[in-house]
Amino acid sequence: MYNSNRNREDGSATVVRTVCAIVFLLFVAIYVFFYQEDTLALTQHLLSGGKTVYSRVIGGSIIIIILALIQFSVAKLMQKKPLCIFAMSCFPSLYILAMLTNYDPSSSMSPWGWWAILMPVVVAVWWGVVYFLGELLRYRYPDNGHEEGYMARTIGCNIFLLAAMMIGVGLMSMSNDITHYRLRMERLLMHGEYAKALEVGKKSDKSDANLTMLRVFALAHEGRLGDELFKYPVRGTSASIVPELSDGKMLMLSPDSVYRMLGAIPRHGQTTKNYLKAIVKSGQATKAAIEYQLCGMLIDKDLDGFVNLLMKTHKIDDTLPLHYREALILYTHRRSSPKVVYRNTVMDTDYDDMQRLEAETKSPGERRIQIYKQFSGTYWEYFDYHR
User: Fold this and answer.
1) CA–CA distance from 153 to each of 21, 27, 302 (Å)?
2) Rounded to a whole number, what is the distance in angstroms from the first to the last CA of the chain?
């Protein structure tokens, strides 16, 4: 009878540990291979000083194996603890996983400084909780594999603990959509996949100046900057479209890749406007440098400066990129004595329709909504409705 009961208890323990292990490994695999792949790539980039490149398969597999070994070792230490808190053996592994994916690029602090400082305290508190629960549950709810409902109750308790810890990892890790878009774009740009990079976050209105900078870079490489820039949510000013000169910052991609495309390395302390102006004035500007300066003026809503430069660098006709023609239509309508008059039957009609819609819609809020629905992606909508 004793051996029979012991076998049932051992069998129950095996089932509980197996279920917990499967849930734990599934969560870590999904988290590492899909949700936080780009954050882990940034983590490796920072830890290696940019000398190594993260591999999804190799890097993810190593992380999973290490975390599984840590969990297995901790489970050995907790072997005599009640089976209903076996899931607590996953806590150290999940803490490390959260630490690896908690980098905040907007913070001036060391990415993992607090995590490393707090680790001894957190581990001590965790072990204290494990010890307290172990002693409390040992006498109140002894492990009896033959007791009715024992298996379901024990598995349920462990799944609850795992779920709570997994939610904690999700809350503590880097979950900002814009930062995820930036990391994904930079990884694609590093491999020259400019078209794929432009698909990242394309259907989302969430953006910032750094994401706009990356899109300007990718669009320029694809030769689509003047046609598609304002089809994306544009944030910031022209000062942020060239990295490291003012606001624009890259997390993994080297700024040299932008300077190389534009044709020159900026001098120390040079502003974006002066940098682009100097390149164009030198007569050795690349096509991308000219498009950068023109689009920078459009972002700043400097129509007069845009027209002056456009007249020097392009032929004013219907072969111009879409946003350049939209800006010329706007300039022609908004200036009493324009330096250049551009007419296009279709675009003039569209612009008149937009003005008519604005006049007919009295409520500012409703007007903004209607204009966005019908004219989002045009330079006109950006010029009038984006600060």
Assistant:
1) 17, 22, 68
2) 80
Residue 328 has what pLDDT?
96
- CA gap 380, 371 in Å, rounded: 10
The secondary structure of residue 142, as a DSSP letter, is: -
Place of tokens 């432009």: 198
φ and ψ at residue 279, rounded to 5 degrees: -65, -45
**Residue 384 burial class via C-beta count within 10 angstroms: exposed 0-12, middle 13-18, buried 19 and up:** middle
DSSP letters spanning 146-198: TSTTHHHHHHHHHHHHHHHHHHHHHHHS---HHHHHHHHHHHHHHTT-HHHHH
Query: What is the three-state SS of 304-373?
Result: HHHHHHHHHHCCCCCCCCHHHHHHHHHHHHHCCCCCCCCCCHHHHHHHHHHHHHHHHCCCHHHHHHHHHH
∠ CA 323-328-334 to the nearest 5 degrees? 125
Query: Hey, is 236 helix, strand or coil?
Result: coil
Reading the block at residue 376, the tokens are: 């989002």
Cβ 200 vs Cβ 181: under 8 Å:
yes
100 to 104, 122, 178: CA distances (angstroms): 11, 16, 19
Q: Mean pLDDT of successive 10-residue segments in the chain (387 residues)?
A: 47 83 94 90 83 87 95 88 86 91 64 72 88 72 56 86 92 86 93 95 91 96 95 93 83 90 88 90 86 96 95 93 96 92 93 93 90 93 90
What is the predicted pLDDT for the residue at 14? 83
Helix 209-222 to helix 177-190 angle, to the nearest 10 degrees?
Answer: 30
Could you give the 3-state DSSP secondary structure of residue 378? coil
Q: Tell me how many degrees the CA angle 190-194-200 measures, rounded to the nearest 5.
A: 95
Alpha carbon separation from 252 to 86, 184, 200, 228, 306 (Å, rounded): 39, 10, 16, 25, 32
Q: Which residues contact 82 (CB under 8 A, 6 or more apart)?
A: 133, 134, 137, 138, 141, 142, 143
Structure tokens at 309: 């430069």
